[in-house]
Amino acid sequence: MHQPARSPLSRWTHRHWLLASLLAFSAALVVTIIPGLANATRGTQATHDFTTIELPLPAATELFAGEAPAAEHWLPVTIESGQTLGGVFAELGLPASLMYQALEVPGMREPLVRLRAGAVLEFQLGGEDGLQALRFERDEAAKVELRREDGKFVAHVIERPLERRVMTATGEITSSLYAAGQQAGLSDAVINQMANAFSYDIDFTQDLRTGDSFKVIYEEIWREGERLRSGGVVAASFTNRGKEFTAVRWERNGKAEYFDLEGRPLKKSFMRMPIEFARISSRFNPNRKHPVLGTTRAHRGVDYAAATGTPIMAAGDGRVSFAGWQNGYGRTVIIDHGNGTTTLYGHMSRLGKYKVGQRVQQGAIIGYVGSTGLATGPHLHYEFRVKGVHRDPLTVTFPKPEPLNGSEMVAFRAATAPAVARLQQLGGKQLASR
Known about the structure:
Layout (H helix, E strand, L loop, with lengths): L13 H30 L16 H4 L11 E4 L6 H7 L4 H8 L5 H5 L6 E6 L5 E9 L2 E8 L2 E8 L3 E10 L4 H7 L4 H11 L14 E11 L2 E15 L2 E10 L2 E5 L19 E4 L19 E4 L5 E3 L4 E8 L5 E8 L2 E11 L7 E2 L4 E5 L9 E8 L2 E3 L14 H20 L9
């Protein structure tokens, strides 16, 4: 007998009905709570009334407490050639009376009156008279600020400590000392000082050879992280044609001099070459044909070709015995060095400041290269005479100075030992070490 199909609900057990009842109750509960939550949320968005209250602003010192003050404004003025302090004040529209007040401050007249081209003056304008302060570099180690206080200038010195840095360099000659020095990172001042130290033993115009080498310890002057200038050669060695020459700096009687390792001064009685880095155009020759006269005539000196205006130095200490025009020599200076020795410098374009009878020291500028008299071009004609007899300046033997002795030698060795040790440690070819 066929039985009718049973409904799905008829197959549910008691457990099924219990679960269904719980689900229905949960759904009804959710439907009831959600609208309430929505209404509660809308209730928190009620509008509010705002009232404006005027409050006093804090003082500027309170508002910016803890912050750095605004930087002072300084107007820099670079001095041009021929410009004076009075001219600067006039250009800025400042009364001359202020300038005179500044000059009356003790110690200020000298640096402010003798302004050099390129110097920088800084002005802080404002105030009743138009100027609040003026500042400038007094020297490398100090800056001066003149500030108006109670109607007058008061000087404030700002110390700027200098730092000496010791540098080293080595190089090898391939063409010239200048080229090798510049490749090694040396300044012209250091190259010149090194060359001058060895100039009594090495003629850098004719003695240099490819492969010659140098080692040098020198100083640089720095201030606040900025390089100012070279400070001089402390020690150096130069190998010329296989022979090594050494120079170390030591101060004696308040003056820095260069000595060899045995304590003998490098400075001789006479300089071998009284002009820097000139070219020898004619040597000492008793049978030379004169370039102007065309006749065979002894050339009793050495000619150094150089540009017009190149400085000429006194070869040794002495007294000027002649300064003026002398026949074919043109403008000429003759120096008497004592003991029957004299030197002559001819064909100058102009003479130096020394007059007849005045004493000159070795290395002093006594004139400038020219082509006056019987000359085909600018050069220095240099003669060396002993008791009236001409000697070849390039080969004449100069007497050696006496070495240090006793306590001076002890002090010299102690003071120069670190530089000598460092010089010996320097190796071959390398650029300046920093």
